[in-house]
Amino acid sequence: MNTTLSVALHNFTEKYVSQWQQQTGLPPASTDLYGIPSPCIVRTGENWVYWEPQTFPIKGATLDKVATALDINLQSDIHTFYTTQLAGDMKATFRDITLNLVQVWNEDDFIRLQENLIGHLVTQKRLKLPPTLFIATLDSELEMISMCNLSGEIILEKFGSKERRVLSSNLTCFLEELTVIVEPKG
Questions:
Q1: Interval 134-178: pLDDT, tens
Q2: CA distances, 181 to each of 16, 27, 98 (Å)
Q3: Cα 26 from chain centre
Q4: Alpha carbon 178 to chain centroid distance?
Q5: From residue 119, how far is each of 22, 70, 76, 145, 168 by CA, in Å?
Q6: Can you supply one Gene Ontology CC term for this chain's record (predicted)?
């Protein structure tokens, strides 16, 4: 496990929760996660949940099933990124890009995440594109922020094409440069 990366993720998450608390008096809220069980839920509203991050519940968890399914080695940072904590997705900006940092909500979500990563990698392999592993979604369903599995760089990529732009040299630097966005519900 990359300790520097897990500290960067923890620091961003702490900043995220803190800014929600400062601006709303409440923990982060999500309508997308309403009705989906998670140890992160601290309170439920009319059609939203308030959440706080929790330690990842599966000791020694990795994305090895993804690697095995495609017979590739994955960048070690991607294992750390998805197995450090349970949390809701977190809205942020990276320079001029607004994004939702993908997180694992519960153990079932971890299984779904692995299936989605496998599907993403299979599509890339079929299109003869270098392998990437998504870490954030954008408003545009055609673009996403991913980690290049060859270099470890964080890139903005257009789904199903060779169109890519390097955003950061690695995931730790990327997380350290994120700015929290708070969007209160209700």
A1: 999 999 989 999 999 999 999 999 988 899 999 999 999 999 999
A2: 8, 13, 9
A3: 22
A4: 13
A5: 39, 10, 20, 16, 25
A6: cytoplasmic side of plasma membrane
